[in-house]
Amino acid sequence: ATGKVPLVYLQNSGQGNTINPLLSLADRDVYSIPLFLLIGWRGEPGTKDEPQHVKQGKVTVSLLDAMDIPHRVLLPEPEGARRCVDDLLEIAKTERRPVALMVRKDTFEPYQPTGQRAADFEMTREQAIEAVVAALGETDAIVSTTGKISRELYECRDRAGQGHQQEFLTVGSMGHASQIAMGIALAQPKRQVFCLDGDGAMLMHMGGAAIVGAAGLANFKHVILNNGVHDSVGGMATAGLQVSFTEIVKACGYTEAWRVERREDLAERVGQLRSQRGPAMLEVMVQRGARADLGRPKTSPIENKTAFTDFLSR
């Protein structure tokens, strides 16, 4: 439409999501569409990163090679950086194909959000998680989405002197927590299963709501913590404050959906969610941001999985 090469900005954790459109649509053997992929290189070999980024970081280059996508690593000095961009743009234009520029950690300055609508709500996300967890039973299972929601859930349990066996921390696979929770709810219909989701994760794979609704699982309970931003990766805005998750999930077949903004109303709503025949959803409006000293899980993903599966087997 513009005659220009479009820029697609992503973390390499999203590289897996791009494989299908890159190969089945943009590749030179199909529509031959020039694209400039700007890829943040999480988990680069030799750097310290979170467990979910380690494997992706190892295979980032080999995946690009396997897809026959020319690539460079952005050089830190301005002249070298310009040369990298110019070289790749020339390839994209003349050969009409996708190209990729990988960006190492700390190459850019921290992102400063500008011009975004403020999520001026009463509760912090951490306060909301504490209220939800406090209202759950000892046999209830929790599947929490990737990023700060899982980190805050972990610390919530630590502060309460509780174990972590009741929850599965979906440290990667953004947008898929609801489907993991649905699988557990399907396999164990007598157990209440709660999915702690974020607005960005929900939007990423919102088709999952239709699958949950169609399954009609009475024990599936969905909590969406909505602050309108991708908090775990820099605070970029989502469309979370412009859409109605309550109307969307009801249209998908959820039996009921509520939205709550005030902390004093949350405990009652969680109680309603727990007693409501599912699938049902509670949207909790929360502030953006997190504590500067927010920790990370001290257990490994394998340890988390083992404790959780042991809990489910009881």
- What's the main sheet like? 6 strands, parallel
CATH architecture of the largest domain: 3-Layer(aba) Sandwich
Number of domains: 2
Helix content: 40-55%
The helix tally amounts to: 11
Radius of gyration: 21 Å
Tell me what you see in this structure.
It is a single chain. By secondary structure, the protein is of the alpha/beta class. It has 2 domains: 7-103, no CATH class; 125-312, Thiamin diphosphate (ThDP)-binding fold, Pyr/PP domains (Rossmann fold, 3-Layer(aba) Sandwich). 40% of the residues lie in helices and 18% in strands. The chain has helices at residues 15-26, 51-66, 78-95, 125-134, 148-159, 177-187, 199-204, 207-215, 245-251, 263-275, 301-312; strands spanning 7-11, 35-40, 71-73, 98-103, 141-144, 167-169, 193-198, 220-226, 229-230, 236-237, 256-260, 280-285. The strands form 3 sheets. The protein has a 6-stranded parallel β-sheet with strand order 6-5-7-8-12-11, sandwiched between helices. A 4-stranded parallel β-sheet has the order 1-2-4-3, with helices on both faces. Strands 9-10 form a two-stranded antiparallel ribbon. Strand 11, helix 10 (263-275) and strand 12 (280-285) form a beta-alpha-beta unit. Helix 4 (125-134) packs across helix 5 (148-159) and helix 4 packs across helix 10. The longest helix is centred in the first third of the chain and has 18 residues, at 78-95. The protein is elongated. The N and C termini lie far apart (58 Å).
Entry summary:
The protein has eleven helices and twelve strands. Helix 4 crosses helix 5 and helix 4 crosses helix 10. Helix content is 40%, strand content 18%.
